[in-house]
Amino acid sequence: MTAQGAGQRAWSVAGAASALALLLALAGAPAPARADEASGTAGAAAAERGPVTNLPVPRYVSLKTDEGNVRRGPSIDHRIDWVFRRRNMPLRVTAEFGNWRRVEDSDGQGGWIHYSLLSGVRTVIVQQDATALRARPDGAAPVLALAEAGVVARLGECQSRWCRLSAEGGKGWAEKAALWGVDPDELRD
Fold it and tell me: What is the rounded radius of gyration, in angstroms, for the C-alpha atoms of the chain?
């Protein structure tokens, strides 16, 4: 076999794997495990990377605009299932295809949205009513403000149990358990 023939076959196998991953993503099924994940090697603990951006998937982003159409599939030919209408709302990217990102909100609702409507600015949504924003990342620290459920805040530093938030002029530390848009084990400087 010539080198060209081997390269074409390798490309075809890679193309078939990509097509299978896309079909599974469109159907909402989990992607098949890679060989290194199935064998339990050290690479299994590493985060998956998006095929377009090479950024971790899943990851959190925010809605850049006041309104964003969320489609059934990754093109404008697919019908609109949802319209997100809240600038800065946090979203979780679960898949990538070309200029499209499959996202979900804090309620698990979502679909495909064009990447130009998303921002890398990290935000969170407060899940628990009367969440205390404290002066320090400590349950005994003075309460600076109380955040209602549904408040969207900009995410700052995160420690093991606490994240620093800023929203509408108020700043403080909140417990991660009260927030959506940050992973429980995520640390940020």
Answer: 20
161 shares a domain with 100: no
Over the range 89-103, which residues count as b (16 or more CB within 10 Å of their CB) and which as e? bbbbbbbbbeebbbb
Instruction: Note whether 59 and 117 are same-domain residues.
Output: yes
Pick 29 or 171 by higher pLDDT: 171
Count of CB atoms situated within 10 Å of the CB of 54? 9
Q: What is the largest CA-CA distance in the chain?
A: 73
How many helices (DSSP H) and strands (DSSP E) are in the chain?
A: 2, 14
Residues 151-173 have pLDDT tens digits of: 999 999 999 999 999 998 789 99
pLDDT band at 9 (very low <50, low <70, confident <90, very high): very low
Residue 27 has pLDDT above 60, yes or no: no
Question: How confident is the model over 44-82, as pLDDT tens digits?
Answer: 345 799 999 999 999 999 999 999 999 999 999 999 999
Quick one: pLDDT at residue 46?
57
CA atoms of 22 and 158, how far apart (whole Å): 33
Q: 111: domain range?
A: 52-121
* Contact present, 156 and 167 (Cβ < 8 Å): no
Domain membership of residue 46 (yes or no) is no
Judge if 104 and 62 occupy the same domain: yes
Alpha-carbon distance of 55 to 34, in angstroms, equals 17
